[in-house]
Amino acid sequence: MSKELISNIKDFAAVISIIENARGRALKAVNAELIRMYWEVGEYLSELCMESSFGDKIIDEVAKYIANTAPTIKGFNRRGLYRMKQFYETYRDDEFVSALLTQISWTNHLLIMSKSGSREERDFYVALAAKEHYSSRELERQLDSAYYERYMLSSGKQPPELVPQNVRNSILDTYVLEFLDLPEQYSGTKFQKSNN
Question: How far is the CA of 37 from the CAs of 32, 126, 127, in angstroms?
């Protein structure tokens, strides 16, 4: 190799940086749209249930309609739809987390909603997951170890400040992959194996 080419190779790292930055922005955008979609579906279902004399049972009908009309759309069964409704109803009046909702993955939201006992605890874990860039595995570990209680007892500190999410963890989120409707060869399991 010529000396000129060898010295230029060091500058070629800029191309990799450009690619990685673009991927990061794309993943953030996909996650944000996914969370917005779940919010809007949840809002629609919440209003539909309030207006219906059947209450939450109407969600079964919506799930059947989606399955029959658009069978290739994944994640919109009764359980998924109920979670979207729960997501909306959990956070609709919570101004603290509204800026954070699109910064963490859907899987992390599900963990927080299912394992947090209070609004303050949910707010704490949403902010923590965003700040520390937690994967769902790490967030679950923190939830299971009662980190919120220990943190508050040890110093009485306020919840962590808000920062952007680490995109590398969000690509592995199964819900993002389903939302993108990627072919089976791009499953979450295969992504996880290739990133370890």
Answer: 9, 18, 21
Report yes or no: 164 and 103 within 8 Å, Cβ to Cβ: yes
Tokens of 161: 């400040």
Handedness of CA 70, 73, 74, 78 (dihedral sign): negative
Q: CA–CA separation, 181 vs 183, rounded Å?
A: 7
Q: H helices then E strands: how many in the chain? A: 12, 0
Q: Please name the residue ranges forming H helices in 53-161.
A: 58-69, 78-91, 95-98, 106-115, 119-132, 136-144, 147-155
Chain centroid to CA 119: how far? Answer: 18
**Whole-angstrom distance, CA of residue 143 vs CA of residue 145:** 5
φ/ψ (deg, to 5) at 179: -60, -40
CA 47, 50, 54, 56 dihedral sign is: positive
What phi and psi, each to the nearest 5 degrees, are found at residue 77? -80, -175
Task: List the chain pLDDT tens, one digit each, 196 residues.
Answer: 566 656 667 678 888 889 999 998 898 899 999 999 999 999 999 999 999 888 889 999 999 999 999 999 988 999 999 999 999 999 998 877 777 888 899 999 999 999 999 999 999 999 999 989 899 999 999 999 999 988 888 865 555 543 334 444 444 455 555 655 655 655 555 544 444 4
Backbone angles phi, psi at 148, to 5 degrees: -55, -50
